Structures are given as structure tokens and as C-alpha cells.
Amino acid sequence: MSSHSAPPSTRRARQREESRERQRAEMKSEILRCARQLLVDEGPGAVSLRAIAREMGMTAPGLYRYYADHRELVQALTAFLYDELTADLSSARDQAADQSPRGRFTAVARALRTWALHHKPEFTLIFSKPMSDADCAPGDPCHAASWRFGGVFVGLMMEFWRAGTLPLPQPGTLDPEWLTQLEEVREHVGSEPPLEALYVFVLAWSRLYGMVSMEAFGHLAFALTDPEPVFEQTLREILALLGGM
Questions:
Q1: What is the pLDDT of residue 172?
Q2: Which residues 6+ apart lie within 8 Å of 214 measured at CB?
Q3: Which one, out of 45, 71, 117, 243, has a CA that is 20 to 30 A from the CA of 100?
């Protein structure tokens, strides 16, 4: 039965339910916006249900109708931030759609750095995990969001592999313990690339993330007032590791 052929009372009930769902979604989004502002203004320790309720003019029990506890709230906030970052990276990738894999990877790497430097508290929450409730281990609610983020870089690296330009270590030269761990990564990226390719992917990502996080967390300030040239040099080295033109 279509919504137009349903009795008026049924349509009204359905419309009320849809309205309640929209209002609930809007309230949950507003709570996340408030939690993010507290994170930015006062740090991760300020992100509590009681503080958010106070900022929003609600009672703490009223807030529990939307997020059952601190962990559920922080998991939702972490997933939201991952998805925002993923959207930024995907946009940078798509704007470089007519470029080579090197060009697309360069655009996305720079977008990651830009987001990290403009959103240091948020970057710290999702990558440094100052609260245990922000963990994104398998089984945690934000785990899927973390892999949506990772999927952007995995997809770009797969372009190098499919183009046949990815320099691989010789079979048998990698530590067997490396290969055992990389089998777990394969569960997320599929069976197409060999473990040697995943090894290169991990090296490339660790160098990129290491450079971005050191700058975002202020660990280069002792030597550099402008780390951008070092970032660009690191990016060139990563591209050489990945190969391709």
C-alpha cells in the first residue's frame, strides 16, 4: 500500500513518526556540534554529557535520551570527525581526477595536512586518542568510519599497483612477522595486491602520517618555524617509494 492510498490516520501517524525522527537526528547533530566546540575550546577533558547538557540548557538525564553514556557520545563524535576529514580528502581527490596517480595522491596528502593544521584538537582526538572512549579498534562503533578514511589512501595506492609502477621488495626478503600482520590488513583491502605491495603501502602511510602529526602536534617547532618545505620533501620521497609518473 502506497503512502497516498493509506488511510488518513495512518499517513498522519507516519508523518508524526518521520517528524520525530528528523527532530531526533537534528538534536543529535546539535549535541555533536556542542561536544566539538567544547573539545576545541577546552580540550578533551571538557567533553562530558554534563557539560554539554549545561551548554545546551538541558538536564543530563534529558541528554541520555540521545546518547546513553560518554563512550557512545565520543564514538559518535570521532566517527563524525573521521567522516568530515574523509569528505575533504575525497573532494581533493575528485578535483584532481584528470591528473596522474601522483597528482591525486599529492592533492590528498596536502589536504590531510591542511585539515590537521586547521583542526588540531579534532586531529588529536581521532589520531592521538586522548580518551580511551575514542578508540576505533575492531568492534568499536567508529571503526567503520576510520576505515572509510583509510580507504581513500588505500584506493590511491592501489592505482599505483594497478598501473604496474609500484616498486616491490623481492619475494622472500621481508620479515615473516611483517607478512603475518599484513594478512590482517588484507581483510580490508581485498586479495588483489600481494603482501609486498601492502608493505609499501604501510611504509608510505607511516611516513605521511608521521610528518603531518609531528607538525600538527608541534614536535618540529624546536627546529622549524615553517615545516612546509620539509613536508613537501617528505611527500616527494613518498611518491618515489610509490613509483609512477
A1: 81
A2: 220, 227
A3: 117
